[in-house]
Amino acid sequence: MTASFPKLSEDFFSIFTHKTLPFLTERGWDECYGGLFESLNTKGEHGREDFRRVMLHGRQLFVFSRWAGLTDNENFKAMANKIFEYMTNSFWDTEYGGWYSRVTIDGSPADSTKDLYAHAFVLFGLIHHARYVEKQKSEYWIEKTLSVLAQHFLRPDGSYKEKMNRYFADETINQRYQNPHMHLFEAALALCEYKKTNENSSFAVSLLALFNNKFLDQKNMIIREFLDKNFNPDNKIGHVIEPGHHYEWAWLLSWAAETLERSELNGLGKSILDRSLKFGWDSAHNGVFDQVNARDFSVWKNSKRLWPVLELIKALNVFLDNKNRIYLGKALEILMTYYFKKDGTWTEHYSFDWKVLSDGMPVSSAYHLGMASLVLNNLNDS
Asked: In three state form, how does the secondary structure of 28-81 look?
């Protein structure tokens, strides 16, 4: 270790606040057509992009709204409002309801499907915009989004349709995917923090039950990513699991323990973290593997993206025993040595032995960077 936990945590938060967000404010918005660029390089240059994604706008609405509340920075507030106005004017299907997945740069639908993952992040962003920037306008869209989720996405088995066409016909009728449900649970917890009503609590509790009963393999203490309509592992890819999502769920369960007043969830979160550290951490080179084979816990995909180590940092921070303190030190050192730069830019993807695999910066990673910096500095809403 070259620096203490507090120093690395403070540096991370400071660089993200004073370097990354001003960089994204200046370079991340398309001043010609409006909307957010998908990816930038470290010089702030973007490639040729002919579409905008609603998921990215939901994520960045969260980031800039939360930092507007933290810092009273007028530029962050203005950016949050620009994202909000563009998102609500461009992505909402005014005829059938729901959020388009993509639009062209001139604002016409490029992908009219209605995607659960995207709707979860739109909801998450709107909640933070309502809480920290503009309550009345965002609450209107929160209610519209919740209504679409309840009326069109919710299945009789308690899961949500992962993807539908414009007219809400289910395109994933034989699939049940963990990841979008996890982020819907995250949005539900944020909703409970914003307004603790019986209805909002029931929304979160129902998603927690789905996780416990369907996505969590309690015998092996692993989280299944890809299931069929009967919640059995998918025949082709059901063996693939992601350590990063285990860490993400561990942290979410700690948040839920407080928000839902379910203290036993801390024990479950700790168990998931302890189990997944054994198969997700690269003991030879350090870092987190992207994917693991659940059949024998061999490495399935040995590359190392940015977001899994950020999710690990969040989980370790809330379950900080002596063992996890050592892991946290290693994870922070890796973050600040390989991934996150002092100028606020980042490297997204490495090989197992730390060779750069991509020099682009997906702007959506700002969500993971922001969340980790909040948790490390005890500034999360939970």
From this structure: CECCCCCCECCEECCCCCCCCCCEEEHHHHHHHHHHHHHHHHHHCCHHHHHHHH
- Structural domain span for residue 36: 5-376
R_g of the chain computed on alpha carbons: 20
Distance CA 128, CA 68 (A): 10
Q: Alpha helix locations (H) across the chain? A: 5-15, 21-27, 54-71, 74-90, 116-132, 135-148, 178-194, 198-210, 243-259, 264-280, 306-318, 322-334, 365-376
Nearest of 227, 328, 340 to residue 273 by alpha carbon: 328
pLDDT number for residue 381: 65
pLDDT at 2 over 50: no
Note whether residue 73 is domain-resident: yes
Q: Report the CATH number that the domain containing residue 371 is assigned in CATH.
A: 1.50.10.10
Residue 367 has phi, psi (to 5 degrees) of: -60, -50
Tens-digit pLDDT profile for residues 200-239: 999 999 999 999 999 999 999 999 999 999 999 999 999 9
* Residue 233, helix vs strand vs coil: strand
pTM of the complete model: 0.97
Sheet holding 102-104, edge to edge: 51-53, 102-104, 109-111
Average pLDDT, the chain: 96
Would you say residue 84 lies in a domain?
yes
What is the tally of structural domains in the chain? 1
Domain presence at residue 114: yes
381, part of any domain: no
138 within 8 A of 126, measured Cβ to Cβ: yes
Sheet (strand 291-293) strand order: 240-241, 291-293, 298-301
Q: pLDDT tens digit string along 123-154?
A: 999 999 999 999 999 999 999 999 999 999 99
DSSP string, 243-284: HHHHHHHHHHHHHHHHHTT-THHHHHHHHHHHHHHHHHB-TT
Q: How many CA atoms lie within 13 A of 268 on its CB side?
A: 21
Contact 235, 228 (CB under 8 A): yes
Distance, in Å, from the CA atom of 196 to the CA atom of 343, rounded to the nearest integer, reads 39
Q: Which residue in the block uniquely carries the two structure tokens 């379910």?
A: 262
